Amino acid sequence: MNEKTPILAIHSVSIDNIAKEYNAALPYYQFLMVLSGSLHIHSETFGSDYATRDIIILHPGKSYHISPVTDNLVLTLNLEKYFVSEQLGSSCEIFCDSREEPQKDYTQLRNLIASIASSYCEDASEKRLTIYSLLFSLLALIQKNYLVSTINLTAATENGRHLSRIQEIRNYIEENYASAITLASLAESLYLSPQYLSKFIRQHFHQTFYDYLNQVRIRHALAEIQYTDLSITKIAFNSGFPNLTAFNKVFKELYHTTPSSYRREFLRHQEQSPQNPAEHSEDSSHIHKNFDDVKAYLSDMSGQLPDIDTPHARHEPDTSHYVIHANARDHAPLSNPMTCIVNAGFAINMLSSDFMASLTDALQTVRFTYIRIIGILDPDILPKIDDASQYNFSNVDIILDYLYEHQCIPFLELSVKPRKTTVATTHEGFLANPSIDSFFPEEHYKKLKYFIRHCINRYGEKYVSSWYFEIWAAHTDYLKYIETPEQYAQRFKKIKGILRAHLPNTALGGPGFNTSAPSQTLGAFLTELGQCRIEPDFISLYLYPYSVIPQASPERTDEYIFFSPDRDVMARKLKAITDDLRKYCCHIPPVFITEFNSDLAGQNHINDSCFQAAFICHNFLAIKDQIQLCAYWLFTDLTEEYMPRPSTKSGGIGLVNSQGQKKPAFFAYEFLDQLGSCVLCEGENYIITRAGHENYRILVFNYAHVNKYYCLNHTDQVNVQDTYSVFDTVMPINISFQIYNLPPGQYKIKKHTLNRDHGSLLDQMSRMWLQGNLSFERLSYNINNLSLKEREYFARTCIPAQTIFYKNSDGDMTLNCKVSAHEVLFYEISKEY
To answer: In whole angstroms, what is the distance from residue 492 CA to residue 495 CA?
Structure first.
């Protein structure tokens, strides 16, 4: 007998790509929400195409034909019919169809369905009460907005008279369906003639007595087919059918298959379904582990649903006020792993004079010690000369000379990686990596030896020994590893031998593990390294806020990658990984995040918004004490090569854009770089530090995460005017910082304000767009082609606001501030002499 799920009201939850047409005769209510793409649904009474954001409820006992129109992704929540009927009654029918009623607002319904799915896909037993709370909220919303009467009354005066009789008929059939009831026996119980009763049922139930009776019997039979081991014959008799032949005939009319075939298909689906947390077999527990990431994908609902689309939300009154106390004499060392390293991307990009100029300008304000570079051994950087034992180092020298002269240290990824820095998105997630012939061609081992020797001769062993080297374990964008742990370990061992022969003290690490993949995958690589008696000098990870959802369909082998609605997903992922390292490493080496960002999709206006600055600050506080290095991906939009080519190139993932203009993300890095080396106190959205003798810094921000619907559809292009509509609603925060035990005297306070009015490249462009008569795409194109003087003016004006004021202190100081959503404030406090 199949064990039921912990939430008996829920039949299943799934996220599927509908790739083939099929007929559906459902035994439950199906809430179907299109996340991306489109599909066609039709029944006997309607037919329509459903696209992104559309939602429909399919009814049990009815037949539907469903077929794909384009590549799509669909979230389905299936509720048991008995549960819905018990709560909403039988006299009304649910009508929910966003194509038929486009004027209706379906936002709250979408949020509830996403939240139920989120909680259900976590530990459904632990969240049992939360799920039932959300389910009853869902049914209350349906009762209020989506119910229509199934009673066909022609006049209001007849309503009261017929409702009682209709309910009597329903009750009689529900109580006696397992018996040999007839129209005559029902008529007798109601003191009516069979002829009158037959006409009444046709008029008000829209079907014959026997059709209605058979639907009730089949509904009860389905529960026994699905959840018991009773024979089909026994179920037929239990449900009131006179024989198996009659049962099979009625069942096939409704579901287009036999009861036995239906049971086999249902059991097969249950065994393969990752959505059933009650299954504890070895196979299903493996599926459950993979499906843990769904909780980050849909997120936990622990309270009221945010009304994310309320147009006046940002005008609501302040709801938060904090008083923060800090003792200037109490401080601890501050770990700042983020501003010491940045990703330059592929080595070929550093041959660009625009890239060099932009990096030179950035290094004047943010002291990036390490510059991470990919592909230093690529043929277009280090080509072979005709003599097989000689190489042309001119391009290598240009790159490394620049770093040496600017006192930066190379951090070199040695693997051959696909030449791209962002990903293009599709309805199915991300495009797969281009194929790679070899992750480290045999020729590269020889080339690496010559490269190391050349660098030692040119820059000296001391400088080259300070470099970091990394080896990536190859995988696709769907996080399918295409290099086995054994292959990786052998490659790592061979490269380590070459490096150690020339540089005994240099650091080599890997495997560039993407934390969106299952942690056991990292364990397999580390275990194999251990068996080969190899210890990496550091563990390198890629940290992005994605959830990976495995396909439930056995025909599909790919996975879908989505933006996680968990605002703390980065810290949670990192903690889970570092906890797991104890299983695989006797001595845990330093942990480096060698790629980090809020997204990998270029041409998204969110990348240019103030959100990105608050995102960086939020995750700095969340992960700084767990790691040693964290490299932002990427430094500049100039390096984005594999983007589509419309008229606009705004919204890249760099700290600066392709014109060298600094984005809010860059200013966040500038603030972090000035924090100093000691922390007085910190909290969820602030940190107070000491930066030298009698100098203090305060960083405070108000982070708003993207809302759940955007997470389900983050591959969609966001219009510039809608950029700030995709975030959860957060209220402004009022904070009073009270610092005491300061040396008495006068203090100069410099306040930097980064918000939509000051320092936001996106918002400055938006204001220009609103004032003109150009499309935003045309305006973006024009801005990308400004003259040098116009570009310089744009860069000078698009900076955080700065105000200076003074305070006298007798040892205590209070600073009051109000921080709006996406806003970042930075205070420099220094004693005057």
So the answer is: 5
